[in-house]
Amino acid sequence: MGLVVQKYGGSSVADAEGIKRVAKRIVEAKQNGHQVVVVVSAMGDTTDELIDLAEKVSPMPAGREFDMLLTAGERISMALLAMAIKNLGHEAQSFTGSQAGVITDSVHNKARIIDVTPGRIRTALDEGNIAIVAGFQGVSQDKKDITTLGRGGSDTTAVALAAALDAEVCEIYTDVDGVFTADPRVVKKAKKIDWISFEDMLELAASGSKVLLHRCVEYARRYNIPIHVRSSFSGLRGTWVSSEPIEQGDQKVEQAIISGVAHDTSEAKVTVVGVPDKPGEAAAIFRAISDAEINIDMIVQNVSAASTGLTDISFTLPKTEGRKAIDALERNKGGIGFESLRYDDQIGKISLVGAGMKTNPGVTASFFEALSDAGVNIELISTSEIRISVVTRADDVSEAVRAVHSAFGLDSDSDEAVVYGGTGR
Amino acid sequence: MGLVVQKYGGSSVADAEGIKRVAKRIVEAKQNGHQVVVVVSAMGDTTDELIDLAEKVSPMPAGREFDMLLTAGERISMALLAMAIKNLGHEAQSFTGSQAGVITDSVHNKARIIDVTPGRIRTALDEGNIAIVAGFQGVSQDKKDITTLGRGGSDTTAVALAAALDAEVCEIYTDVDGVFTADPRVVKKAKKIDWISFEDMLELAASGSKVLLHRCVEYARRYNIPIHVRSSFSGLRGTWVSSEPIEQGDQKVEQAIISGVAHDTSEAKVTVVGVPDKPGEAAAIFRAISDAEINIDMIVQNVSAASTGLTDISFTLPKTEGRKAIDALERNKGGIGFESLRYDDQIGKISLVGAGMKTNPGVTASFFEALSDAGVNIELISTSEIRISVVTRADDVSEAVRAVHSAFGLDSDSDEAVVYGGTGR
């Protein structure tokens, strides 16, 4: 029996009852012979309440102080959780990110972990304690200031600690039963995935699946830490995310051809109209965007109209960055040379993810057929080796996800396999 | 213009508006040319809310985790205060007790400061920042665990930092205008004291005055740090507590004969009845009490009745310790040898404090005359060099305080001096 890292999100520890329920589950793992390290988020809406307070005091709170404020949330939940465990007769000690050795860079509000030195955690474990660690936070290497890792950072804390402590598994407890083949709020027949590879999970996370953040999965893949995503409310087995299929009973879970359908309605589309079709134009556009520190997602350049020598370039980006991107392009209009800008935030993205695409020709064709049968118009297309994404009208997204989910035999009451017929991808 | 330490209590920073008001006051001190270090308590009822949460999770929360929990409160207020100051265009940085170098022993929930190493605070000041420090908390020297200093600990943090930084003054901002000659809720004519010596303030604090805690005044006296107690709501001059009378205008504030009247209804009286009047009996009683870690206040032994050779011993202690004391004595009844125990929690204590007692005979007589005129019966008496205390019925306390306050000419609309006639104290 080795070391297990468990992570509990805010909804699992929303109140005193939740904390006591979680404490029991942790004690079970300890009684099963594991060394247990627990990473915990702030209770329920604590973080949002603290953000509200900050906004009342200052419209633009400074990063360093904002991080100091937000980390109070985990301090509360971790101390209460340690108390609840001790109340069950087991030894527990809580540690801040700094005490747990979570060393980060100095980028406040979205720091990156650069090292984990869990000496105090190791000592606590060796002395028979359950170690409770504040998620989402660390301490900067140079200035010794408190930092936070950004939303979802507690998952990354858990995986990073699991890697540093050479854990058997990192269990991410949440309020859903695992990773599903689609968002169950949109697709009622979505199925829980028993196992998914790091690669497919990364693509799902990048395509709008909210269960695990991209950064956390990336970290787990780099250090090859299996993740088990499961519910803190039920005792059910959840979804394993790992490099190799896990055993279930006495047989291996098979690699699915298609892992799932993700969607995302948080993006907007910018179209740069009338760009001269000559070398360096795209570079100028995306240099302006990158200088404004905006991350973009898809990029599509239309075929140039021979008559005018002009082309259009479209890209998608988070809606929250839309204003900034338009401003950055307008400022550089002279240098870049384009006619006009179009901004559209009524779009949605549907992505089909699965390593099986590589070896199963026809997936792309089936995907487009399903969309076409559902009457969904496609505006942009982008692909990776194991993913196809399309941009559609936002209003069409739910219908499109359901159509694709069903067409690929992912619906839970359907056992039919999809036959991939066509040639090429 | 030197360095000023300001401390703001929870009622001064109870909400976003309070934090903004306090921020303005801090900035004024900075604009007046001071280096400013601010110690801040948790907002309003935050600490009580956290205690409630802890009780829901565990009936007997462990000290280490309880401290970790409570310190979240100051983390929130200090970060918000730093943001509010920066929003006014001034540089501010917040520091936890640990970051500020507040080193304590390892007694959780009531740790004592054993050293202050404010290197980071000094650097922040030298760089032109206002430094905001979490009150009430420190880090233990041996285990590097987070500790708290007990209720009122923020005042001690402020004085300790003032001493370590060699501050000109430690300003304690609160929701009253200063230290009064009596509790203004009981005595409407109570006057604000302009200046009071450390010694008199120590006696007042020990006798029930809530404005400053005994430990904080003791610390200030040891390092000779003047304290200025004042309101964060008005801009008025408050009460100076220092070794030498301060100047006011161009004349020195004179040492008052009597500083004030304090009262305390938080104590109970235990009477050990029928104790053999022989050496070692009192020692046995108070060893039993001290082994149970109970602090007691007054002790009185009655004259032994010659006929029986038995005597009664009474002492007072916090009501909260009453149960524990009775249990400890009952457990040791055989060894000590007494007839019975009486427990009375309907008592009150009135204390008259003033260094002038030493040189003004008759203070004691006037004190008892005032009580007698008010028809107040005295149950116990205890004195120090500059204090007389009596225990009465709890119901008589308010009337007794008013009578004594008036008799010593402390009422605000009275200018008459009290003539001390009698002989002896």
From TrEMBL, chains A, B:
Superkingdom of origin: Bacteria
Single GO MF descriptor: aspartate kinase activity
Domain ACT: 270-346, 352-425
Keyword ATP-binding (UniProt): yes
EC number: 2.7.2.4
Pathway(s) the chain acts in: Amino-acid biosynthesis; L-lysine biosynthesis via DAP pathway; (S)-tetrahydrodipicolinate from L-aspartate: step 1/4; Amino-acid biosynthesis; L-methionine biosynthesis via de novo pathway; L-homoserine from L-aspartate: step 1/3; Amino-acid biosynthesis; L-threonine biosynthesis; L-threonine from L-aspartate: step 1/5
Keyword ATP-binding applies: yes
Catalysed reaction, written as an equation: L-aspartate + ATP = 4-phospho-L-aspartate + ADP
Swiss-Prot/TrEMBL keywords: Amino-acid biosynthesis, ATP-binding, Diaminopimelate biosynthesis, Kinase, Lysine biosynthesis, Nucleotide-binding, Transferase
Known role: Catalyzes the phosphorylation of the beta-carboxyl group of aspartic acid with ATP to yield 4-phospho-L-aspartate, which is involved in the branched biosynthetic pathway leading to the biosynthesis of amino acids lysine, threonine, isoleucine and methionine.
PANTHER family: ASPARTATE KINASE, ASPARTOKINASE
Protein family membership: Belongs to the aspartokinase family.
Name assigned to this protein: Aspartokinase
Organism, scientific name: Streptomyces cellulosae
